[in-house]
Amino acid sequence: MEGERQRDFRVPLISALFCLFVIAGGVFLIIYVYVPDQSKSWYPVVALLLIGSPWIFWLLAYTYAFMKACIRARQDNHAVSSNQPRNIGDDQNAGQNDQTREEGSVASKESEEPLKFTA
């Protein structure tokens, strides 16, 4: 089964790209520190952005995955709640007060004797 599965080219491509970013950021940082007369003022900013690019990528990827899961869960909950059948009896009893409900239960012909426990 492992032989049938083709390798995904995106993983090595992204890894190589991040490796190049980190190396380029290191070069900018080394030039800024060890050759200050030839460096520009924006070298440390670009160096830190390039070195931090993998962290930024993963932070954005995790944020995207989290937001996607939250949105999907909210849509699933909304779909479930909108598809549930409504209990018509609840709407009819919604206007009644507690006294009317109590009178209905007192007028019931059901036995109020507690159930017996058998072990």
From TrEMBL:
Residues 79-119 are annotated as: Disordered. Residues 99-119 have a biased composition (Basic and acidic residues). The keyword Membrane applies. The chain crosses the membrane at residues 12-35, 41-65. Keywords: Membrane, Transmembrane, Transmembrane helix. This is Uncharacterized protein. It comes from Daucus carota subsp. sativus (Carrot). The lineage of its organism: Eukaryota, Viridiplantae, Streptophyta, Embryophyta, Tracheophyta.
